[in-house]
Amino acid sequence: MKIIEICGLTKDYPLGTTTVHALRGINLCIEKGHLMSIIGPSGSGKTTLLNIIGCIDHATQGSVKVAGQEITKMGDRAVTDLRLHHIGFIFQTFNLIPVLSTLENVEFPLLLMKKFTKGEVRKKAEQFIDEVGLREHMKHKPAELSGGQRQRVAIARALVTNPDIVLADEPTANLDSVTGAQILDLMKEMNEKEKTTFIFSTHDPNVLKYAKDIVKIKDGLIEEASAS
Amino acid sequence: MNLIVKIAWRNIMRHKGKSIIIGVILFLGAFLMTVGNGVISGMDHGLHKNLVNSFTGDIVLVADKQEGDNVFLEFMGKAVEPINNYIDIREMLKGQSFIDKYIPVGKNMVMVLNEEGGMPGYTYVLGADLKKYNEVFPNTMEALEGELPDVDSKTVIVPTGARKEMFDYSGIWFIPKGGKLITKNLPKDNTADTNSIVLKDSIVFMGYNNDNTTSDIRLGISTIVKYKALNTILGHFSLMDIESYRMALGYFSANDKTATLSSSEKKLFEMDETNLDALFSENGSDDISGSDEKELSLVSQVDTTTVIGSGKEVDLDAGVYNLVLIKIKDQKELNAKVAELNKLFKEKNLGVRAITWKKAMGMVGSMAVLIKGALFTFVMFLFFVAIIIIVNTLSMAAIERTTEIGMMRAVGARKGFIRMMFVGETAMLSFVFGGAGIIAGAIIIEIISLLNFTSDNDMVQLLYGGDTFSPLLTTPDFIAAIVQLTLVTFLAVVYPMKVASNITPLDAISRD
Question: Of the candidates B50, B45, B240, B238, which has an alpha carbon nearest to the alpha carbon of residue B140?
């Protein structure tokens, strides 16, 4: 089952008097439950592609369907709800709400959904914090956690709503190699366990071994797509 | 909602510096507004208490043809229209259950003739049945020189303000009958050379009215008084007995109205204009049927002096007045009661209308409202400045928190959530600091009231609304302060809220 269908996607940015063509016509389908890596050098368009899939940027042209919904014609409210219910995010650095504890950060999207009781929210959040190995740090604020621990919290938060897709933009970029490997192991484990589609971008060739599918982008075009 | 409150509160605590700046501004604004409202309410209450209880009553009746409502303190001293049918009005007032007391009075400006040959002066005078006046407005003045008169006296009571005014233009220092010069009561500039001061114990008043009729009357001074409160304003009004007032103003006195007319006098009054003209024609006397020389000579003698002092029982209310001062039992819904009276006056065609004491006192009656307006404008200006500072601080805070807000939006927070988060933060600051400002203001008002500051200074008394400074906080004052705080909170948060809600996840990524 295709969870993402992209057809003829272009994205142009105005830059002064010129236009930057970040994506020049991407066609891509991603199956549900896959763990895909988008690789490419800096400026190749991988982050732009992730942003458009994650409904946080708009396509200039083309069609993008996420979880069966055409997102290019959606309004702000609809894409916000789509993000809440179908997509989880793990960003490079700014992942957590600084004034909330680990537990509260993981509870945050569940509370926004307004479909669970307080008890259910607490139970789910604790379950995912357990799964990322941070039970001891449940009451800690982000400032009291290491970079790796913060990314673990972000993973727990991204998965707690049981989304169709988790998007991770260079999730290991700011981590040391050991911590980065631990995060990727965790993502792989979650992918296998929860059957959640993971798409992450990276320019680190060492992380490729974790991906089932690899899409290589260069100059805004898919240069190569392969299954490992 | 709990989540918003939690995030808002923790953000306040996280950004303590900014929170304190905004909080202090809100505190000061709320504090100033509360104290200001308390002072003005105290002044309003004092003016009301001292003017209504001592001078005007709650409602004032004026003749329908009276132009304008400012009948007490009209600067040019324009004559107040007469009320000729007080007996009918009195009958109607008796039937109104909400009325407590009432008294008809004469009120006008009169000339004070200068017997030393100088220019005449002017003063306001009130004419009243002194006994009734004392019943309706008891203990309003204290005697500085002389004794308060016997109620049946034909006399004038002169307040310090009026005496000073008359002294300024005539150089005559008025003292009570049998009194002597009390140097300490003189203006400070005149205490050095008292021998040159002309003393007099009576005043010649000359009234004038809209019909250009004038008459003069000499009245002995019984007392020099000072009003116990607001002598600045009330001290311009000399008080005399009503019949003397009527004589001075050339009005019909009660005696005039109750005089028994002979048949020839009746005929004379019943004559139309043509016949009156005929009186002055060559054959005038022939045109008055049934008249003879004896009867005409009687007619010529009909004037006020022939009947005053005749010892006859007269109803003072039969004569002319200018105003009726009414005290009501419950001062709530004054305007509704005024409207009710006016409806009745119209139905019965009594030729008078009711106005509130504030309207009757002109600027002074509205002084509290005017000062309240000025204070409100001042505080609103402060709040405007506060709003600018708060808007700036909150907008900066919103921009600084772009990554946090962008991440919240990415995770699924709608714009409404972000807006509510900012409203929550500002509302909490308003509630905590603004609330503290209101409470601090209320405490200060209470302390000032307990200290019982008093003043003899006339201008200060005007500001105090009496001789004691008694600021007062009423429920509407509290509500006004809360409404203003809410308004400030709302206005201050609108723009930052817009800035914050327009932050997108992409802004956060770009910033990162």
Answer: B50
Instruction: Express each pLDDT in A60-113 by its tens digit.
Output: 999 999 988 999 989 999 999 999 999 998 887 767 899 999 999 999 999 999
What phi and psi, each to the nearest 5 degrees, are found at residue A95? Answer: -110, -30
Give the sheet arrangement for strand A18-31, strand by strand. A18-31, A2-15, A61-66, A69-70
CB within 8 A of A98, min separation 6: which ones?
A: A141, A142, A143, B14, B404
Nearest Cα neighbor of B235 from B81, B50, B383 is B50
3-state secondary structure of B374: helix
Instruction: Write the DSSP symbol of residue B82.
Output: P
Whole-model pTM: value is 0.67
- The alpha-helical segments, DSSP class H, found in A20-67 are 46-53
- From residue B64, how far is each of A101, B82, B355 by CA, in Å? 76, 10, 11
Top residue of B2, B10, B12, B411 to mutate, by most chain A CBs within 10 Å, is: B411
Q: Is the dihedral of CA B82, B86, B92, B95 positive or negative?
A: positive
Three-state SS at B195 = coil
Cα-based distances in Å from B404 to A54, A158, B15: 17, 16, 14
Query: Rounded CA gap, B428 and B433, in Å?
Result: 8
Best residue in A91, A100, A151 to probe B by mutation, most B CBs within 10 Å? A91
Residues 54-93 of A with CB under 8 A from B: 54, 56-57, 76-77, 80-81, 83-85, 89, 91-93
- Burial letters A112-123, b for 16+ CB under 10 A, else e: beeebeeeebee
Distance CA A51, CA A56 (A): 5
Q: Residue B454: what are its φ and ψ, rounded to 5°?
A: -120, 160
